[in-house]
Amino acid sequence: MKRYTLLYILSLVVPSLFMACVDDEEYADSPEGNFEALWHIIDEHYCYFSYKNQQYGLDWDDVYSKYKPRVSSNLNRDQLFEICADMLAELRDGHVNLSSSYDMARYWSWHEDFPANFSDTLQRRYLGTDYKIAAGLKYRILDDNIGYIYYSSFNNGIGEGNLDEVIMELMLCRGLIIDIRNNGGGYLNYAERFASRFFHSPTLVGYLQHKTGKGHNDFSAKEEQWIEPSANLRWHKPVCILTNRSVYSAANEFVKYMSVLPNVTIVGDKTGGGGGMPMSSQLPNGWIVRYSAVPSYDSQGRDIEFGIDPDLPAAITDADFSRGFDTIIEAARTYLNK
Predict the structure, then answer these.
(1) In angstroms, what CA-CA distances link 111 with 107, 125, 161, 243, 256?
(2) Most distant CA pair in the chain, distance
(3) What does the radius of gyration of the chain's CA atoms come to, in whole angstroms?
(4) CB 3.0 to 4.6 Å from 195: which of 209, 238, 257, 324, for a disulfide?
């Protein structure tokens, strides 16, 4: 197997750099032509057909038979958009979107159908008003000498200097809580940069595959993903990563990286998933469809498209909420204080 650091795959999360165009001579700019173009783009490039057939019986040919009769030449743009959106929702994939100049179809049931397990009101109680901010990180020392870092989005950049300052501030703490609840992802290089502060030798953290043809099962061999340790300050003590269903995409990858470390415990709810790295294509009418094209696996070769289970399950209870306590943060503090 080939060995790659994660910077190799960074560009795959920038859909605009990987835009496939539909041949306008093959598919007309009509309701029927745009529908056919959309179905074939997904059929040839989407990466999770076999996995989702196993999970819930997805059959893309059956999906075509279900939605094709709804398409006719007299559809207006809104009617066509609704039909296409409904068809894409059959994939149950938060990385699948259809974008027009006036709307974006999306599948958000991966987090909307589950408890939030995060509260801004509760978090303000723990952060207080005198917390520090280093680029995308909010951090402070809790009153039991546990360090607390909140990273809301991997769209928010962090530099090596930021991470040095945060680790220096928290270095005397007995343990560290990294709260990434509601982090919907962003740039993989920030996830890798953050994770590298916890690794002390090159470590295999997972695998990738790439499509090699139009068939549903046309993939390369699994290619290894490795994290290289940072040359700067690194953390050696116990860590708890806090997760909920809104941890997705690059944040889901971050959990994957960190879960291989023996001093790291995942606390909270199952992540939302989003293991497929996205690409985009354009329909004849100019609409853009984004879809999962590169499947990602954990270090054991397991699929992470539908999320990663916590090591220590926890959920915010009504009783704790009414008392101003975040059950998930308290579970991590109890664990670290042991």
Answers:
(1) 10, 24, 34, 12, 18
(2) 69
(3) 22
(4) 257
Question: Position 80: which residue type?
Answer: L
**Which SS3 state, helix, strand or coil, does residue 252 take?**
helix
Q: How far is CA 102 from CA 147, 222, 288, in A?
A: 44, 39, 12
Alpha-carbon distance of 142 to 148, in angstroms, equals 7
Neighbours of 82 (CB within 10 A): 14
- Residues written for the chain: 338
Q: What is the pLDDT of residues 216-264, one digit of tens each?
A: 999 999 999 999 999 999 999 999 999 999 999 999 999 999 999 999 9
Distance from C-alpha of 334 to C-alpha of 125, rounded to nearest angstrom: 17
Cα 171 from chain centre: 29
Contact 193, 135 (CB under 8 A): no
The two beta strands, 97-99 and 104-105, are: antiparallel
Reported as a single tens digit per residue, the pLDDT across 184-203 is 999 999 999 999 999 999 99
Separation of alpha carbons 140 and 329, rounded Å: 14
Q: What share of the chain is helix, strand, coil (3-state, %, to 5)?
A: 35, 20, 45
Task: Write down the residue that tokens 């002390």 correspond to.
Answer: 200
Q: Which amino acid is at 40?
A: H
Q: How far apart are CA 207 and CA 228, in angstroms?
A: 15
Contacts for 290 with CB less than 8 Å, ≥ 6 apart: 15, 95, 96, 97, 98, 99, 278, 279, 280
Tokens of 121: 């009101």
> Taking Cα atoms as reference points, which of 226, 263, 269 lies closest to residue 248?
269
